[in-house]
Design brief:
alpha/beta, Aspartate Aminotransferase, domain 1, 7-stranded mixed beta sheet, globular, binds pyridoxal-5'-phosphate
Amino acid sequence: MTHRPLTRLVHGGRATAVDGGRPVNPPLVRASTVLFDSTAQMREMRGRRGSERLFTYGARGTPTAFALEDMVTELEGGYRTRLFPTGLSAAAMTLLACLRPGQHVLLPDCVYEPVRRLATGFLAQHGIAAGFYAGDGHDLQARLRPETRLVYVETPGSLAYEMCDLPAIAGIAHRHGALVAADNTWGSGLLYRPLALGADISLMAATKYLSGHSDVMMGTVCATEAAWPALAGVADAFGIAVSPDDAYLVQRGMRTLGARMAQHERGALVVARWLQARAEVAEVFCPALPGDPGHALWRRDCHGTNGLLSFALREAAPGAAGHFIDHLALFGIGASWGGFESLAVLADMRGARSVTDWSARGQVVRLHIGLEDSDDLIADLARGFEAMARMAAYGIDSDGGGEQHQ
Ligand SMILES: *Cc1c(COP(=O)(O)O)cnc(C)c1O
């Protein structure tokens, strides 16, 4: 029976029966060596493990990791899932699985920056060419080359949350004979379903919302049956496995993903509307806001929004955005997002975009709205704007000694 996503999060990847009762959660199984009853059984299992998921050696995954794989597969609606030590390694191994020297990949201008660097650095050194298309995908067709074998999608994109029309992009790519891989970290399997919209591969940084507690790193890649063998092949060739303890933590986090996401969304929308009304703010980037360029696609394809939003400052002195962030007390300053806590970082849009020209736009602040009370978060942001105003009036050192970091 196919259940809705909130039900899958609770009932997916449960413990299997043992003698007597069974725990709610699958047991934590730590293993390198796996024992067999006979040489014949060992030979038989090894013969089958290329195509079947069998517990034969720790590097091929443990029952704890398998339970998490199953849960992700159910959520993403794919054939099977592999786990990777980080979200970045999930993206990197997806690229390596799909591309050979001499081939070409197209990535969106709004791609997560380390993936941009991987494509222009490592892939280029290994004879795989990379090009970039606009975050909304309008120029994709024109940028295809005969040797384009993969179209990579990230929607909404990193930092400014550009939406693209994935079904349209998948149509163009597939007619060209290229695969489509989507970074689904923003959607986290709940808000967006790339495989249902035409992608062949969906990957996520489980580091973010799936784990949800800022204490574990992991990546997931779920593929259709056709795209699966190449992906599994590269993961086996490189000996990629995750710690069962980490798999346990991610699965534990996922049980409450639905409840957390609803709260992140509520808080982010309250903060976004408040920011839109501030004189200091030129633009708020969040596709859930009416008026955002991606709003129509968001309404069509997404099932809600998360805790992420960015905003550009109107005219501001150099260093103003940093000064604003430094004077927030509740927002941590740090990489990543998707945990229970609020974060604020400076976004260097000029370094993060090559197709879209950001040179005329103001400094951008990226917020992750955590599970705190949104009134407290808004009061904190108001203090940040007050510090910015003092800086404009008296210079950067006259911050009035308010509540601040460190
Ligand atoms: C964070 C992130 C990643 C990488 O995940 P890590 O686990 O930090 O390596 C990949 N894609 C997107 C969109 C991300 O935000």
